[in-house]
Amino acid sequence: MTRYSYATAIREALREEMELDPEVFLLGEDIGKTNGSFGVTQGLYAQFGPERVWDTPISEAAIAGAAVGAALVGGRPVAEIMFGDFATLAMDQIVNQGAKIRYMTGGAMSAPVVVRMVTGAKGATAAQHSQSLESWFVHAPGVKVYAPSNARDAKGLMKTAIRDPDPVMFFEHKGLYETKVAAEFADSFDVEPIPAGVGRVLREGTDVTIVSYLKTVYFALEAAEQLAAEGISCEVFDPRTLVPFDRAGMGRSLARTGRLVVAHEAPLRGGFGAEIAAIAAQDFFGSLVAPIQRVGAKNTPIPYAPELENDVVPGTADIVAAVRAALA
Amino acid sequence: MTDLIEAPTTGELVELLRRMVLIRMFEEKAARLRSKGLVPGFLHPYIGQEAVAVGVAAALGPDDVLMSTHRGHGHLLGRGADPARMYAELFARSEGYNHGKGGSLHMIAPELGFLGANGIVGGGIPLATGAGLQLKRRGLGQVSVSYFGDGAANEGTFHESLNLASLFDLPVLYVVENNLYGEFTRINEHMRIADIADRAASYGMAGVSVDGNDVLAVREAAAVAVARARAGEGPTLLEAKTYRHRGHYEGDMCTYRPAGELEQWLEVDPIDLFTAALLGDGVLDEDGVAALRAEVDAQLDKAAEWAAEQPHPDPSEATTDVYVDTCGGEALR
After folding, report:
1. What is the CATH number of domain B2-332?
2. What is the pLDDT of residues A258-295, one digit of tens each?
3. Gap from A101 CA to chain B (nearest CA, Å)
4. How far apart are CA A258 and CA A256, in angstroms?
5. Do B330 and A108 count as a contact with CB atoms less than 8 A apart?
């Protein structure tokens, strides 16, 4: 039985979409001849050649901007930002250009690009190679934000992202690249595109809903497992895309549990968890029986020393504590 | 070099003049209408630089694409955009090119391959480069034009884009309009070099400086660059040396300009120079010039009247066109 990793899943989605549509092409730093820093694009240059897989100079603004420009005249580019932190160098092209083109032109033009954002802390990559910047893009009307937590979702959502007529920021947690697909999907990896805005309950429960995405989902599942031993039943809800966000799905879960914990790796202050909490408070107040609890990274840069990184980035214990607070 | 482009016919010469006059009068009228309150936003007048937009456009084919700047009205009109829809956009009306959602800084004319003005200095350069990349992939010999000013040549996007385009032999014509001013500061206070075209050498790219007030010289230099691009020989940096008669924006009093500088440039006004040439060559006579100007004036009166009669956008349009697919409206919440 072949076991597909998260990285393989993204690669297979890219490959399948490139086979389906000749306008789909990749551009980024070292993604072609050298197969990509994390091996995600391995073999695609060999299969599709330099007209479909463009090894660019280290020029993030040009990468993002060229992707947008190509999309304006019929291309379906997928740009890789080797470390999502480097999106700072491409912000104008993403936020002022790609995100707004459709609106500024009154709907006459759009930029169907995918920007792959290699995200998150993965062991001592320190402050400029570890960040979780999704909330910056959530705040830019015109882009969608996808954030899959597992190989199956990564494949299905990448296929959707490439076909999405709008610009998509596709967050891939580098700490998930080698995680394997759940056993339930391992016998077949023919994943259909997964619609944006449809979350998934990863574990059912009755006492508390934990809403989480990307790698933090796994800490939420561990926390749920630990708490189950004490008779506390946690539901884990993964929205899978942040824009659009599955309000209804979260609402159904809150109707069952009445309590909400939001957990993500990005810094707590201004993180997307604040938006999720606000949605719950505004739209599902009637379901809530306890104050909402939020879990996020400390409001610091990501430190280098592993023990410091572990302290800053939230883990299972932080989520367990938040669930207890919600039940207090 | 000159065999790459045929000498313009008499009709084409008159058309070049007509487009330059159209740009000049469009801008003058836009400024007057703004002072009457019809234009709610910024205007960055192109007056003085008309030969660049018209000369470059004359070297292009119908399938080429263009990316412009905050000073983009001339580029649009040079390409043949409809002044009525441009005025409607300036007046923020729903029949404007962008349906009132863009204004001067974001104006498009997609049916002409005109992919947009741009509110960010240097912001359009990577976009034009990417369009060039896609056109190269398509392989039909189309060219992408990137207009920008001397100020944008100091942005990082200039460096990244020109290097990338050169590396991949992209069919892009980079037109830097050196009008001597970046916003309110003279170029010599922003860079040490006299010719921006010199920067092309550092990208292994062809670089040419041309008199940007000579429409035929611009047309010819652009045609050479376009031919190179179509032949797969890569991009060119074409510097057009010109002068911004008005301020950075309409209303700028230009107190930063040295005394006498404007007057010196008015003596080489691109429209006056070209009109004199056509008169001298007998292509037009004084009556012909007067008639041409009167025709353009009447055309613009009609265009502005039509634009002013168009409806304002309905408030419900504020939330349309953010996404193609709003996912049932959820992407907007």
Report:
1. 3.40.50.970
2. 999 999 999 999 999 999 999 999 999 999 999 999 99
3. 9
4. 6
5. no
